[in-house]
Amino acid sequence: MSLQQLLAPAFTFNKLSITKWEAVVNQFKLHWGLNNGARSNQFLHELYNREMNLFLLPAEIGLPVPHSLFIQTSTVVWQSYLFFDVLIGKKLGDFITVNEITYFIKKRIRRKEITIRQLPQLDKVPYMDAILDYLFLLERLGILTKLTETTFQLKQKILLPRSNREKEEMWQSFHQKIKAFSRNNK
Asked: Competence protein CoiA C-terminal domain location, by residue (predicted)?
């Protein structure tokens, strides 16, 4: 694989096994939730302070994105932070700007809650590419509408399941969205 392929990866859900991706996300959650250091984990503390459960995060958190290589922090974690800081407080029709997201991401980086991968070949790592990939994926899934290059509008709220049964129902619905998304992108 060339450096150019690493820096500008192509991505479609067609190449992604949904079950494999779901297994990786669930394995991550299980490892983090049962790890000895879980009691002192800053991310888990914030999650629990918000009265959320790691195992009941929505399917839209932890999505694989092409430029995720630029962010060392797990996609589950940085996408959760984006959800906490920006998405959860928005109402349908509210605007979300890249400037707003950048502000919160930089704040998380300064507090060392998100770590940017250091790549010796690059003077400055374009980590916002991963964030934009995520926003564009949320757009393709019908959650956001892109208005301009730097402005999105919330079209559908990301819901938090309150039980394992709700989580399973939401995952089934999400699987259907992904299948439809994949069929339309062939």
From this structure: 36-163
